[in-house]
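Handout, page 2. Input:
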Amino acid sequence: MNTPYLSIITVTYNAELVLGPTLDSVASQTFRGFVEHIIIDGASKDRTMDLARTYKQEHPEIEVTIISEPDKGLYDAMNKGLKLAKGEFVCFLNAGDRLHDNMTLEDIFDNAEHPEKIGIIYGDTNIVDHHGNFLRQRHLSAPEQLTWASFQKGMLVCHQSFYARRTLCPMYDTRYRFSADVDWCIRVMKAGAEQGLTNLNMHSVLTDYLDGGMTGKNHRASLIERFRIMAHYYGLMTTIWNHFLFLFR
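Output:
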């Protein structure tokens, strides 16, 4: 079987009310390249698995893998997905989030020059409500040139709009409960820089992100974790100074 261009990993738990649009956004892509979709479920007790199984049956053109079992939290589930992924690139599209439009993947993979030299593909993110209605653009926008040092100014690229070459991807550090994605993205970017790979800015919206989420519900704890992560990579004084500047941004 051919190697997928992309592994999309979706983590779910009791997500029957929001999963449908996520699956539809993948199934409606015009991109004709090979894509796999890995659904990692935390033993849902609602109709989440019924939706996933129907999706797999109705879309044989997508290699759909479904795992449903108890896990130790979001990042443990995401690690399960990474261990199964076979694609050249990996992205996370959790229940409720959507690829921005039906040409998103075609725009990314059919227009990228010298993809073998690319470590990360990234873009912007819209925030939407449960009906998919646009609410606002994400407060932090993608920089023109993304490097691992960029995140000292905050998480400038939403995790769902961050497509990483799979060979760069470490496991998530599950010691972090709310912000392991920040740590993971920094490590991916550092690994790509060490290998001389470039980061491609698509200059477009890649993802519609469902308003809310685990980080939003645990805002203070998330900020504390992010401070610890940034201090680890960028130094304590630099992190304190940047947080002072955040007050005026």
